[in-house]
Design a protein that fits this description.
Number of helices: 12
Number of domains: 2
CATH class of the largest domain: Alpha Beta
Distance between the termini: 50 Å
CATH topology of the largest domain: Aspartate Aminotransferase, domain 2
Order of helices and strands: HEHHEHEHEHEHEEEHHHEEHEEEH
Structural class: alpha/beta
Oligomer: single chain
CATH superfamily of the largest domain: Type I PLP-dependent aspartate aminotransferase-like (Major domain)
Bound molecules: pyridoxal-5'-phosphate
Strand order of the largest sheet: 2-8-7-6-5-3-4
Shape: globular
Largest sheet: 7 strands, mixed
Strand content: 5-15%
């Protein structure tokens, strides 16, 4: 039996094999791997959120199928969240669709809007799913280089000179993963104007909105008509609920209806107590974000020391859950450094090439580990790590 041809265009997600390798290393050695690669928060959701989930489990109807559109409780909570944080007013019944995390939203949006042969602008470096979901939908991913010299933002003047006929979607994500760069409202307005000029939809993926970011923004603030923008949000990172699988897509009612038509064939709603607890999380006061960020700030300081110990160049002041560092010497790339580091010290840091060719010389360090692990990784690097002289003369 031959698999479907569409699978020829994509490969298994990098972390599937990498995590298996780490497991194998852990079973064969006393020195356990310190995994500073994955962006899965190690901290817990708030007590109130956990309590809401537990109580919800005993309520009548808790285990039944739920509405395809999500509960009105959760849609109202998402609407209130947008109003409180961003002064964006959304109609809970038609402009908001709860999702099982934002990752599935990338697929749903691609399937709902991309026809075979349509173009989709995908950031390089960027979250790999933008590109693979475009390919799975039969579209043509057109790389949009993000450069350090342009604050890791696309250059719309250069893009305008390209043949962008049949452009359907433009994927952006700020605070940016993997680079930690931020955007501002002026930039989002420029991006919406670019989308409008090309009759395309700007799809903004916003899972890191409050993390180490003192000016949280929604791209929906840049388009009152909502005609050229969709936004994905997620509770995975900002509320420590990655395994719960909760997020949303918001935008114009017609766009939400189109996504709904596809999505309702894929799943049958989300566990009701998860939706109740998610609504509670979204109503958390600003103290929650403040506390979370003070933990990540302490971790970030150790993270920068790790980057320094590895002679990686960083821009400083990164937002989100990662640090992005450039390998200083051209003799060795990010992947080689990551492999050597894992072999010698059992510290894993993600090589930047998995986010696109613009990431070849970079490593991405995750802040989703306790300070003690980050300190231990720093110590291992300072005491155990050196590269062979033919690979590098500067280490
Ligand atoms: C940029 C970006 N978008 C989306 C996701 C997926 O998040 P979720 O857990 O909401 O599916 C991630 C997860 O790492 C991410 O980094």
């Amino acid at each position: 039996m031959k698999e479907a041809l569409r699978l020829n265009q994509i490969s298994e997600y990098y972390f599937v094999a990498k995590l298996a390798e780490i497991e194998q290393l852990n079973s064969s050695s006393e020195l356990k791997v310190l995994n500073l690669g994955i962006g899965s928060p190690d901290l817990s959701p708030s007590e109130t959120v956990l309590e809401t989930l537990k109580q919800g489990m005993d309520e009548p109807g808790a285990h039944a199928y739920q509405s395809y559109r999500g509960t009105s409780l959760l849609r109202n909570a998402i609407a209130a969240w947008y109003k409180d944080w961003f002064d964006v007013y959304l109609l809970p019944d038609s402009q908001i669709l709860p999702l099982m995390g934002s990752k599935e939203g990338i697929m749903h949006i691609s399937m709902a809007f991309v026809n075979p042969g349509d173009k989709v602008l995908t950031p390089n470096p960027g979250y790999p799913s933008y590109r693979s979901c475009t390919l799975l939908a039969g579209g043509i991913p057109v790389e949009m280089p993000l450069k350090a010299t342009n604050q890791w933002r696309p250059d719309f003047d250069i893009l305008c000179k390209q043949d962008l006929s049949n452009l359907k979607l433009i994927w952006l994500n700020y605070p940016n993963m993997p680079t930690g760069a931020k955007a501002d409202l002026g930039f989002f307005r420029e991006a919406v104007a670019f989308a409008r000029a090309h009759n395309a939809i700007l799809c903004h993926d916003n899972p890191y909105v409050f993390l180490l970011n003192d000016q949280p923004l929604s791209a929906l603030q840049a388009d009152d008509s909502l005609e050229n923008v969709l936004e994905l949000t997620s509770l995975s990172k900002c509320y420590n609920m990655a395994g719960w699988r909760v997020g949303s897509v918001c935008g114009h009612r017609d766009h939400i209806s189109a996504i709904m038509a596809f999505r309702s064939q894929m799943d049958s709603g989300m566990l009701k107590p998860v939706q109740q607890a998610a609504a509670k999380a979204l109503a958390s006061d600003r103290h929650w974000t403040y506390q979370l960020n003070s933990t990540y700030t302490r971790r970030q300081q150790i993270g920068y020391k790790i980057m320094e110990a590895l002679h990686l160049e960083t821009a400083g002041n990164a937002s989100g859950l990662f640090l992005w560092g450039k390998v200083a010497t051209p003799d060795i790339n990010g992947e080689q450094l990551s492999i050597a580091l894992l072999q010698q010290t059992r510290v894993f840091i993600t090589p930047g090439h998995i986010f696109g060719s613009e990431g070849d010389q970079y490593l991405r360090l995750s802040l989703c580990s306790p300070e003690s692990d980050l300190e231990a990784a720093l110590y291992r690097i300072q005491t155990m790590f050196h590269l062979e002289s033919e690979q590098s003369t500067t280490y």
